[in-house]
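User: Before I run my own analysis I want an independent prediction to cross-check against. Here's the chain; please return only the structure tokens and, at the end, one sentence I can use as a sanity check.
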Amino acid sequence: MPQMKDGPRRSDAQRNRERILEVALAELSRCADTPLSAIAKKAGVGQGTFYRNFPNREALVLEIYRHEMQQVADSAAHLLRTRPPAQALRAWMDRLSEFAMTKAGLADAIRQVTSAPGSPAKPAPTPVIDAAELLLRANEQAGTVRSGVTGDDFLLAIAGLWQLDPRDDWQPRATRLLDLVMDGLRTGAPGR
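Assistant: Structure tokens:
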């Protein structure tokens, strides 16, 4: 009988955790300084439940960052299943720029929790680099991009995205920047 009790309790705990993350993402994207108590209240959980899941602001912000990076990374495989490699790569670049711009408050929150001496390090963008590798290798095999470009190269090439101001009309500039990167990737491709 105790097992029956654990199952629902665990799923309730998982739902609470997901609800906290969902609310925190929305609130911190809007304002990096949103109090944790406001996030807990809006998520409909008590302080105890909140702090059991996320003992401090750093834990919450870093978990959101990891989760969002994983979402962006996971979208690469889906795009490759549903589009030709070059279209998948370009669509994923748009998804990455949208992530960079719409999560500006989150970026501020991440800077706040990782910049103080002794604070945790910002998680490495490994899932995004892996996703870029997946897309680049598929395009390389299709002959649509030059060979030898790594995921690290790609992230460096699009680093300008993070310099755009999300409060401005960022989309036309992001599109131009990403089109330039895409043109550069195509130059020297065997299929061109």
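Sanity check: Residues 2-30 form the longest helix (29 residues).
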